[in-house]
Amino acid sequence: MHDTLLQPWMRDVPAAIVQTKAALRAQIKDLPERFAALDAYVRQEVQAVRDEQAAGGAVPEIAYADIVAGRVTEAQKDRVRRRGCVVLRGVFDAQQVLNWNDAIAAYIDALGYEKLAQSKVGLDKYFSQLGASKPQIYSLYWSPAQIQARQHVNMARAKAFLNSLWDARGADGQPEFDPLRECSYADRVRRRPPGAVGLGLSPHADGGSVERWCDPSFQEVYREVYFGDVNAYNPFSARGRTRTNEIPSPAVASAFRTFQGWTALSPQGPGDGTLRLVPIAKGMAWMLLRALLPDVPADDLCGAQPGRAHSANAQWHQTLLDGEVSIPLVVPGDTVWWHSDVIHSVEEQHRGAGYSNVTYIGAAPWCPKNAAFLQRQAQAFAEGRSCPDFAAEDYELGFAGRATADHLTPLGKQQMGLAPW
Length: 421
Fold this sequence. Notes:
Elements: H1 13-27, H2 31-55, E1 61-63, H3 64-69, H4 74-83, E2 85-89, H5 94-111, H6 113-118, E3 137-138, H7 144-151, H8 153-164, E4 178-183, E5 189-192, E6 201-205, H9 211-214, H10 216-221, H11 223-226, E7 260-264, E8 275-277, H12 283-290, E9 310-311, H13 314-321, E10 325-326, E11 335-338, E12 344-346, E13 356-360, E14 364-366, H14 368-383, H15 410-415
Helix pairs in contact: 2-12, 5-7
């Protein structure tokens, strides 16, 4: 980590935590009442999630065909904003996705990934603080199949719809991002074999950890939570979201994503070693105030660690974790999306009969922050190195089978920042 990249408080994080907590506690005169309001809301939402799950599913589902036809209702959109997640059904043709799945498997074999991985143990610190063993997530970014999925016109339409669910206005009333222009964000693939045990990810969020309290840019994002009308907090307001300062780390995205997401490469559902969510979009607000309560030590933010994923744990966050549910059964071509503040996890055990495979593709609309990220990513793409937001494992460096600029469509080049819009 280069010291020049750090905000002043980041150079002494333990001291910053103590100082920030003391300052926030002093400024928020109505902290008990403020937290009580959020706590009542979260408890009501947890019960609603349980009821919805029992009645057919707490995670909203929308057909991609309805997006294309303009048939998605305002009620459906509002439910996605409330739950902070959605399954978009049938974004891709199933056979096309099955072909991508086979191509990725062949790519892994041709690269000799497993042998290479043995020499790179310890480079990826992402999972070390998540409380469970590392799952079968392959640090590969540039296979032709991944490129094809990212730049597909259906994916662009799906992301534009997701971006449109946000209020894009900033503090000055001008848009913080362009919902119709999408930046490519290179991410990895997950391949979990049937019978895998102890290979999950414990509950967490990926958009920063201690920064959410300590950095002024995040305090702007959560201004209603800390200083305004806590009931008016809108997690889908873009105000300040594209201007945040994160601790540089392979565990923290430096790009702004309206939604994290993945595309199902194989059938998978509850019990298949796949995704679980706490589908409460305002849940992060509850976590922020929880850490400021007097029962939490002055130097502790309910377990949040700098440069790590933002964990949710039973000691401090059980009220919220009581709302955790598995995603519904998805099939090849379906996509799953969740707000960057939403707590999510991966099941410890894969009890299904087949592989549980996905390719991670999030929604990162054009904004100055993401345009700057694209410059760094484009260099990594040209050299075959890992995406700059992840550990520099560089498995594809020098591999002749990886994608190059020749694999990019005109749209793909725009999304990679290699051609003007």
